Amino acid sequence: PNDPEYAVKQTGEVPKVSSGEGLVAAMPFILIFVLLLLTSKLFPAINGPLASIKTSVPIYQGPGAKPYTFVWIATPGIMIFIAGIVGGFIQKAKAGEIFGTLGSTVKNLKFTYLTIITVVMTAKLMTYSGMTADIAKAMVAGTGSLYPLFAPIVGALGAFLTGSGTNSNVLFGPLQIAAAQGLDPTNFEDLGFWLAAVNSGAAGIGKMLSPQSIAISIGAVGPALKAYLENHKEIGSEEAHNLEHEIEASVIMNSAFKYFLIFIIMHGCISFFGQHFIHEIHHFFF
After folding, report:
1. Which residues have a Cβ under 8 Å from the Cβ of 173 and sit 6 or more positions away?
2. Which of 6, 130, 170, 180 could form a disulfide with 192 if both were Cys (CB 3.0 to 4.6 A apart)?
3. Cα pseudo-dihedral 200, 205, 206, 209, rounded to 10
4. Segment among 83-87, 90-94, 158-162 with least mean pLDDT
5. Could you tell me the pTM of the whole model?
């Protein structure tokens, strides 16, 4: 908060930004949109050659095995990476600044990378070994036709444990599909898509109580509160203590739990009654 490089000066007048300056400021995001669009399947002349640059690795050798394919260029992550670098040069940033920021970002997120890799490995091992199918069968056997009512809890639990909606989908998405197959073996695709969507929505609810999310929020708010208290010496010690107490992890979790409970119950009802609606729509059209 005391770093002059990030100091925000309060003035009476808001500086005007020209259209050119606004365009330059938004250039990385514009480039992301353009590159993702041009390399998508909407432009096969570009997507085809880029998508052909890939590596297929056999991981699972059991029934129905397919090699795991890594597409090296025609993938959103690479396009975002390119857009960030090109956008930085358009904004007249120096190469040292751009790649220095890249290096510090990689360093700061090294444990995040490790978490994502291990979660994906765990999900694949669970799927290939049959663990996912066995867990799904046990859950369906225990809840029966009421399983969709409890399906959001699975997605929320995944986000709570991993701190990531993406990781929750990777870890428990196959489980939801397997559960759908156990509930309706003859027509599980529609229900499977529905439960996978339910899992994704519930992951956002689970992040309310995720320790990782709360730690990030405290890390962002804590220094700002400290700077505020330093600049307002008139605040008494008791009031300052109360303010600091408000951003403790236990207090945040207790405050968020009631909202988590409300949303997870609502999501469970939507999941349960929505599956019947999806079933009726399928029968109406097909």
Report:
1. 196, 199, 200
2. 180
3. 160
4. 158-162
5. 0.63
